[in-house]
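Side project, low priority. Logging it here so it doesn't get lost.
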Amino acid sequence: MIFSVEGGRPVIPFYVAERVCTVKDLGGESQVQACEVDYDQLKENGAECRLWPSPRVDLSSVEPVFRKHITALEWYSCLPQEKTFNVAGRKFTEKVCRCCCFPFQPNPVTYQCEHIPGAPPAPGMEFLRKELGN
């Protein structure tokens, strides 16, 4: 699919694809659990658990018409989670963000990354059938 940018130039849309790794690829670690990201740090991006766009990423050298598309990319899907810890008999709670890369989103109960219905498959997704429970 090609679209035109003001001024008449044709542009191929941005496609970001990260090959999904299996437990075997990662030396026994699973990529299915949603990543934990600092809640307070992401809140600085303007909303709860907002990973992108971030004012910390300098896009000033990018042409404005492209910058608009880059900041609109939905690279990640994040949800807040409240975790409880017991340290020396005292109970502590901490809020974190749980994030998955597109085309996955965190399950609000298990915090595992699940494929977004209707989204294109991720490269290598077929190798995660067991891990994703498919």
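Brief comment: The chain has one domain: 11-132.
Revisit when time allows.
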